[in-house]
Amino acid sequence: MEDWQKELTNLVENLTKDATFFVQEVTESFEELTQELQNILVNDLDVFWQELMGFIDTGIYPPENSEFLDDFLNPRVEPSADYHPACRGCSNYHGKIYSQQLLVCGIHPYGWTADESCPDWQSASSDI
């Protein structure tokens, strides 16, 4: 065999060894990273699960008497001169949004639409 063929054979063998070593190093690093991420996720999920079960066990979830949560989930819309004007000052007015649908009141769920005043209007103030 000639010298250039021996050099080419050595070069290919060295490249093969180096590539094998590189792949092994990357695989080991990836396995370590995977194990580390798995440990972090398992620990975080375990903490989350314990906190959630603590809320459920103590009866805190869902919060009772939480006006904040109710107002956040079902915001209130006040009547104005342009928006349900017949409902301004009415004690029957509810004005909360449920599933993206406004519930104006129990008597007229979509609001009073006629031009005249609502026949079911009742004053919201106690001094009248």
Quaternary status of these chains?
single chain
Number of strands: 2
**Biggest β-sheet strands, sense, barrel:** 2 strands, antiparallel
- Helix and strand run: HHEE
> For the terminal residues, how far apart are their CA atoms?
115 Å
Total of DSSP H or I helical runs spanning 4+ residues: 2
What percent strand? 5-15%
Low-confidence stretches: none
Our Rg estimate from Cα atoms comes to 35 Å
Count structural domains: 2
> Which range best describes the helical content: under 10%, 10-25%, 25-40%, 40-55%, 55-70% or over 70%?
40-55%
Mean pLDDT: 82
Strand line-up of the largest beta sheet: 1-2
Instruction: Return the structural class.
Output: mainly alpha
Characterize the overall form: elongated
List the helices and strands and how they pair.
Elements: H1 3-58, H2 67-73, E1 93-98, E2 101-105
What's this entry about, in short?
With 128 residues, the chain is mostly helical.
How would you portray this structure in words?
The chain is mainly alpha-helical. It has a two-stranded antiparallel sheet with strand order 1-2. The protein starts with a helix and ends in a 23-residue tail after the last strand. It is built from 2 helices and 2 strands; from the N terminus they run H-H-E-E. It has 2 domains: 1-61; 63-128, no CATH class. The longest helix has 56 residues, at 3-58. The model has no long low-confidence stretch (mean pLDDT 82). Strand 1 and strand 2 form a beta hairpin.
